[in-house]
Amino acid sequence: MNLVSVLRSTALILLVVFITMPQAFAFLFEPLTANRAPAIYNQGSLLFLTLQHLRTVVLATLASTVLAIALGIFVTRPSGAEFLPLSRSLVNIGQTFPPIAVLAIAVPLVGFGEKPTFIALFLYGLLPIFENTLTGLTQVSPQTLEAARGMGMSARQRLFQVELPLAFPLILAGIRLSVIISLGTATIGSTVAAKGLGEVIIAGLQSNNIAFVLQGGLVVALLAILIHDGLGLVERFAARKLGHSPDEVS
User: Fold this and answer.
1) Engineered SS bond to 33: which of 37, 88, 210, 235, CB 3.0-4.6 Å?
2) How far apart are the C-alpha atoms of 103 and 98, rounded to whole Å?
3) For the segment 161-186, what is each residue's pLDDT rounded down to a tens digit?
4) What is the pTM assigned to this prediction?
């Protein structure tokens, strides 16, 4: 086991232990408190808030992935090529407006809670997945497609058996970027009463408790690092299986 694997395993263990038994780490955060303020967030379960945070991110990423890949496939077909500029404009909407603006628009429409946060994360996650899907599908060698056509494959078979498998490492790279963006962005969901790790950070800011702010930030950061690292391993494995250079999907 190399050093990177040891660090990865250690970070995962520390994260799991911290969110399940946070009081065991109280001594580390006590120097950051004042006026006998609690050293560990005590207005809810860190485990529950972490799971809720991940739930919102996963659901939004799944929705973004389905739409972005569908759009990417559509505009790379002869019948949909003319809609590429329009599709790019649509997926850029999420990156045009700041997340807080999307929440401000969504709350009057769907109310407070998880729904406006889901909408913001969904819109923010479209662009990287769409662009990587587009790149992956357009980079498939014409010779490869011609060989598949010569074998008697239909357009549908070429898409699902040749194009998408070859584009998969790049699509996964887009999904990885989308997840990391969503993990950080989801913290602002607590401003509209969505359950998540942003609740810990906001509670710390409101009470001037640096310990709370640090706890929420550290959990989000560790989640981002571990998920980024884990999906990166999957990308490299897929790239090796398909004979790509790892640099092609980084």
Assistant:
1) 37
2) 9
3) 899 999 998 999 999 999 999 998 99
4) 0.88
